[in-house]
Amino acid sequence: MTSLIWTEVGWVRTGTVLTPRGESLEMAASPPDVSLSSGDIVCTAVSLSRYDHIHDIIFNFINKTGMSMLETDGPYGGQTCSAHNHTHHSSYDDSVFQQNRLQIELYHQLKQMNIFVNQPDGYFFQGGNKVGMGYNEDQYNLPRWQDLSVSRQGMYDDTYYHLPTQGWMQVPLIQYHGGGEAAEFDPMSRYLLEYEWALAQYLSYGVAACYRGPRLYDNVQTMGVAGKWVDFYKKYRGIVTSDIVHVRRPDMQDFDCILHVNPFITNRGLAVVFNPTSTSLNFTLSLPLYYTGISNKV
């Protein structure tokens, strides 16, 4: 059975925090030399005495369901905590170290169980599999075309050191953090050009996107557009999830281009070219085919 659980084992803020049982837990104040305003992070949930309880819930669920993927949203162990009554750290001085240690141990356990880990921070050496691909969440407040442009620049840059499948992006079908109607892609039938562009750029880059909204199409036409790009991805999945040669970075003044390469499969290369301008472009494009293994055959 393949399942997904999304957890917010995340932030514990100043004042009080609710435990898994709904109890109110008072948090310790920060050291005299540390200034905290209302809402600042004091200690991540994994460092509390409730860590063991949360840990048992997660692994009990995995063992009973056969779940194969876990998404943790908020594994941040970099903040300090001055509490002296937390089970897994003794004071302010060791709080950061112990929180990071516990987070790493959790990912090690998940890796040993062959669980795919989706996490928003760079825990690849500890067992994580996927992280956000070159974006700031506020960019999804931008008007649709600006969002798409900035997001494509981010993917272009991040795929210098990540494989396409190591990252995710987002499509705010409905308003995410802000931006109003200008930032939304739903109704898709009204914003069909932008919606198809979003599908095309993420699926052709091989980068998974989180489509935030209640639906992926709103009529037969938009269902057909979504289906077209899903079919494209399925057909060329082997090559679009392979390494990328960067041909021209997006600057919205001219075309931009990437070349997927893999000399070990049938489709050894796939070039993706975008024209973000408002006019037709006519140009000759030379592609570096060395990493396709066929440079001496064309």
Q: Nutshell version of this structure?
A:
By secondary structure, the protein is of the alpha/beta class. It has 3 domains: 4-129, no CATH class; 132-240, no CATH class; 243-292, no CATH class. Helices cover 28% and strands 18% of the residues.
DSSP strand count = 13
Secondary-structure element series: EEEEEHEHEEHEHEHHEEE
| Structural domains: how many | 3
- Counting DSSP H or I runs of 4 or more residues, the number of helices is 6
Oligomer class: single chain
Shape: globular
The residue fraction in helices comes out at 25-40%
Q: State the strand order across the main sheet.
A: 1-6-7
Q: Radius of gyration, Cα only, in angstroms? A: 23 Å
Q: Roughly what is the average pLDDT, rounded to an integer?
A: 83
* Uncertain runs: 1-42
Q: What share of the residues does DSSP label as strand, in percent?
A: 15-25%
Write the layout of secondary structure elements.
Layout (H helix, E strand, L loop, with lengths): L3 E4 L3 E3 L2 E3 L5 E3 L14 E4 L6 H15 L3 E4 L22 H18 L3 E3 L12 E2 L11 H15 L8 E6 L19 H14 L2 E5 L7 H16 L1 H4 L2 E6 L7 E6 L7 E6 L24
Helix pairs in contact: 3-4, 4-5
